[in-house]
Amino acid sequence: MDIRPTASLEALPSPRSRVRVKTDLEKDTEAGMDRHARHHNSAHASTSGLDSDHEVLKPHAAAARAQSAQWDRMLGAAVLGGATLSAYAIVTCLRSASLDHLELFHIYYQPMLVMLAMLWLWAIDVRIFERRRIAYGVCFSPQDQQYLRSSHQLFQVAAVLTCAIMGSATLFTYHCALGQLWAASLHPPLMYSLLVLLFLPLPLNFLFPETRQFFARTLYRVATPVREVTWADFLLADILTSLAKALSDLERAMCHMLSGPVMQPHTSDQVCSSSSWIIPLGLALPYAWRLCQCIRVYRDTGVRTNLFNALKYSTAFPVIIFSAMKYQVPVEDWHGFYKPLWLAAALLNSSYSYFWDIERDWDIQWFTAPGERRCGLPRPVLRSELFFQRAFYYYLMASNLLLRLAWTYKLSPHLRRNHDTVLAFTLLEAFRRFQWVPVRVEVELRKLQHARPELGQLVPAPAADRAGAKPLDKRGLLSGEDP
Length: 483
Hints:
The structure is a single chain. This protein has 483 residues and is mostly helical. The protein has one domain (67-205, 212-264, 272-366, 382-442). The protein contains 18 helices and 2 strands. The protein has helices at 15-34, 36-39, 47-96, 99-131, 142-145, 151-178, 181-184, 187-197, 209-223, 231-242, 244-259, 278-301, 305-314, 316-324, 331-361, 390-405, 407-410, 419-451; strands spanning 373-374, 377-378. α3 (47-96) packs parallel to α6 and α14 runs antiparallel to α15. It is globular, with a radius of gyration of 29 Å.
């Protein structure tokens, strides 16, 4: 545009040309706003132009969310179909494989399947938070919130890991069925090596490297509980207690690969056998980490409740020790002395843990201050404001009791030879943790909402009040709120 001074009135643009110039300017402004992050030229935009942009962005964002949900459904259907075909191929190949190869499959791939299931369930929990507008990200520290991912991104990560793990398991069983042991022996080390590389600080922009590094740092903090405990530390440590059996199996698989031939079945005198001290150690580590966290929180806050919480985690150690004694004592001593002690310890651990879930983690008064009796049983006292339906909390209490009793399989090394049963009960424990998370997050958000009113309504009320709730960003935070 020529911006030199005009010599006469005739040189001024006509009204029609001014309209044309204004239109061109608006066009330039709209194009400039598309490059706003690079050129910072939004100052030329008029107020009407900004308003029109917002009117365009709103339906665009809704369409993007709908398209993202559609892709999630398509991705889930594709992964589910592929996993089903892989499972069918694995079962078919294992039928023709020997018992030794069947046991090797469970040693190498069973822990990966359980951890993969937990990742999918966590992604579903995040989707629930997003759909119900629960600002779960506020529970995390401001430094940790930047690493949280949306459910769509978590589904992507879970889908990639599912393809890698199920593909490796399928090839492993296929080569075992054909008798090609040299080829089968390559797949477990390759799979574990690739998974380890994901958490190393490599300059690879793949599967959200910052979040993977954050997970690795948090895992290190959990394994070395000598510093202040954050919400991420607590949540990961609690999830790891539900994965104690998988962690023990993972430790056994790594030991098996490092101590001898990959395709050689274990013997009774091998360092990774069922009688080895490594097996109960792997089971006990998550509970030891969580116990140390409770003691650290008590030291920092002085709240005595943390000591009782530490006592709860300490009740897992007798279950593990008495169960491991089966391989160290004669059969008569096991059935006559140690097995009753093991059952009593398992009952104590399950009862104490169930009480803590109801009274402390979910803030439901049933044992300490029960309500009126119905059918001879005291009625649980729920909070006056509940985000979920009341029937959902009653279902959680009933299912949690049954699943807590199934901990016997998770904490007992001498039951690991029942591979299918142990896998089923370990998956049930992962499902129990999946149910535990939403109500635990709800309770924590209500505490923060009471302690910090400036955060606003973190857990929106059900029904009509949800219409005025603010949208959440990808980190699970209320848009416009300061975490």
